[in-house]
Amino acid sequence: MKFSAAILCLVAFLLFPALPAAHAFQKEAGPVKKCAECHTLTVEEAKKIFGQGADNVVAVLPGPFPGIWEIDMEKAGKTYPVYLDYSGNYLFNGQIIRVRDRQNLTGLRYTDLNRVDVSMIPLDDAAVYGDPRAKHKVIVFDDPDCPWCKKLHGEIKQVVARDSEVAFFVRVYARNNNPKTMKKVLSIVCGKKNAAKLLDDAFAGKKLPPATCKTNAVEETAKLAKKLGIRGTPAMVLPDGRLISGYMPADKLLGLIRPGK
Fold first, then answer.
1. Domain 118-257 architecture
2. Cα torsion at 70, 73, 75, 77 (round to 10°)?
3. Distance (Å, whole) CA 116 – CA 113
4. Cα separation of 104 and 110, whole Å?
C-alpha cells in the first residue's frame, strides 16, 4: 500500500512531537538541562572573539532570551550590551524589544551599565523645584528654548506636587550656543533664589531681565553635559545614577524615581 508524503508527515508529527528549541540538541541522555549547563562562554573567550573591536569585555551574561549571550563591552568610555549566539558564529548589535510590553531591553541595559556618579554634579547654580532637602534628588539638564524641555517642565511640577520626597535640580545651558538662548540662561543663573521663577517665565515666553552677574556656570554645565554624553535636552540623572533622555509623563517619571510607590 502506498502512502502519500502528506500522510507520512502527519504520522511522523503525531508520533514524534517537536521538542522545545532549548532542549533539542542536548548531548547527553538524562534529565533536561538548562542552557547554561550545556553552553559556556568566558570573558577571555569573548575578548578573543571581539579582538580590537572592543576596548575591553567586562562581563558575559545569559541573553534576554534563550540561545544567546549578552556581552558587555567597553568602547570609547561607554559600556554597550551586544549579543552572540551559542554557536559563536553570529553577533547581533542592535535593539531587542520585548513585544509584550514594548520595552527596549537593550536600552534599559545600556542605561543600567552607564550610571553616572551623582556626587560629581554640582547643584549650587541649579534652579530647584521641590524641597532641596528631599530624599530623592533628580538633576535635569535643560535649555529654555527647547520645546520638549518645556513639556517635561510641566510634568516635573506635577511630580513635585504629588511627592514631597522628590526634588528636581535644573541646570540650564544653551545647547546650540544660540546667543538669544544664552541671554536667557545667564538671566536664570544670575537669578539665584529666583532661578526657578525665571525658568518658569522663560518657558512661558515672558521676557527675562538682563543678567546681573558674571559667571562661568553656564559653560561648566555645557562641559559637564558633554562629559556625561548628553547630546540633547531634556536629560535627567536619576538618584541612582541612571541617565534618561527626553520627555516622559509624570506617572512614568515618578515610577522611575520611586519604583513601586
1. 3-Layer(aba) Sandwich (3.40)
2. 110
3. 9
4. 10
**What type of residue sits at position 48?**
K
Using CA atoms, how far apart are residues 45 and 186, in angstroms rounded to an integer? 53
Q: What is the pLDDT of residues 76-104, one digit of tens each?
A: 889 999 999 998 899 998 999 999 999 99
Q: Is the pTM of this model over 0.85?
A: no
Read off the pLDDT band of 35 (50, 70, 90). low
Q: Where in the chain is the domain with CATH 3.40.30.10?
A: 118-257
Q: Which of 173, 164, 157 is nearest to 225 (CA)?
A: 173
Do 247 and 148 contact (CB within 8 A), yes or no? Answer: yes
- Dig out the grid coordinates for 162 from the structure: 504629588
